[in-house]
Task: structure prediction
Amino acid sequence: MEKIHPSAARQDIVCAEVPAPPGALIVFGASGDLVRRKLLVSLFEVFKRGLLGEGFYLLGCGRKEFSDEQFREVARQQIGHKAAGAPEDALQRFTDKLYYISGDYSDAALYNSIKARLAELDKKHSTDGSHIFYLAVPPFLYPTIVDGLGSARLACPDKGASGYVRLVVEKPFGRDLETALELDRVIHRCFDESQIYRIDHYLGKETVQNILMFRFANAIFEPVWNRNYIDHIQITLAESLGIEHRGGYYDKSGALRDMFQNHMLGMLALVAMEPPASFGADHIRDEKVKVLRCIRPFTAESIATDVVRGQYVAGTIDGSPVVGYRQESDVDPNSRTDTHVVAKLFVDNWRWQGVPFYLRTGKRLARKDTEIAIKFKKVPHSMFVSAGLGDLPANVLVMQIQPAEGISLSFQAKRPGSKVCMGTLRMSFSYRDVFGGEVPGAYERLLLDCMVGDQTLFTRQDDVEVSWQLVMPILDNWRKGSATPFEYPAGCESFPEADALIESDGRKWRSLTED
Ligand code: BG6
Result:
């Protein structure tokens, strides 16, 4: 494999990160999993980079009774565990900014207590009353909390105050089109769209943002980024993880809702959209929605031929046996929930007419691998046919989203040796080789963007609606039908029905172990 030499590859344009203005982050569900696993560690990383000034503090809110000190201890343990070797003094300074309040989300008294606590802490930290409310709770609690904030007049800045008030909502945004619209109605009762930050954490990944840089900061790709040169596109989001301890949620969701409606369509939009007028939030989000609207709607006929769902049965992951989906805790033993979805989509516009987009996502597959592969058309004529090289492989551009973040381009080249001697070579760049260290996590980017008020990487309501509209015919079809998903053994790369979807078009999935 040809490697781009790091020093040859870099000529950096570094825009200094904008530090967060003074303000408070109020996290509902502070004793929960998301806060422990992701938010605290990500905030600490941002803090270490000097981007959270004196005027920042976090008020955790949860049903569990904790004192400030107990909450700080939980944070110290979590951060220490994830960021081994975290500098003690930085950790101390960070955790000194954490506070906790407990209560019942449906009790108006909680919101009055939050208001009083914020007034006291705003004074202590000299903030100007800027507050970000973060809903890290199960979605059924969103309306209760939003209404509580609205009734306590916490959803807008105090009269005369210069600060802002924002709301961060984690996916899922509804479980179908109807509930998504209802959720939107409830949230808009108290917050307007400019205050709402909907997190699809895939958009915060460095490699996903790089799709925009790659396409629109280089002149050589856009001219070939269309139906004249591209044969098809594969978007893969494979996980070896199962549903962990989320059986209750997952069994009502499934892969189509959990991954496809948001992360997969989000990546497709970035790959397929037209160049935005600028790097501004609404220009980018306008183009994303525009291309999503061009996706050909699914019909009963196309669902039968172009959509396949699977469910894992017992198998082996990394040499260890794992149970099947139906044996997972909190899962119905007769569940028909999809843990794997494969679909073929078409984008009906001038750029993409006739180019299939093959999307696949699944749990308990052989390995974690998220990638976007652009397969170009073969050469129209091989002049090497007399030497037996009539069918030359096509160029493939692979954007490795994770875990081995990078980009590679494969092409044909002369190998040293006899006169006609050719091979497929790969030119590749790896984030770790070139930039070193760990790639910053998605939540670091998103938390900071929310604090500085940049909505570019957050999902707008029209995007949520269009993507639900697209998957609704599939959900309805599955709900009405009696068919069950195809079974696949945990630890496999694919299964015959998923393979047939692409092979019937004379194409093949890229292997999950190909780099
Ligand atoms: C979440 C899904 O949105 O993304 C999970 O709910 C999934 O089921 C996760 O495991 C995958 O995220 P990542 O960043 O690990 O690829």
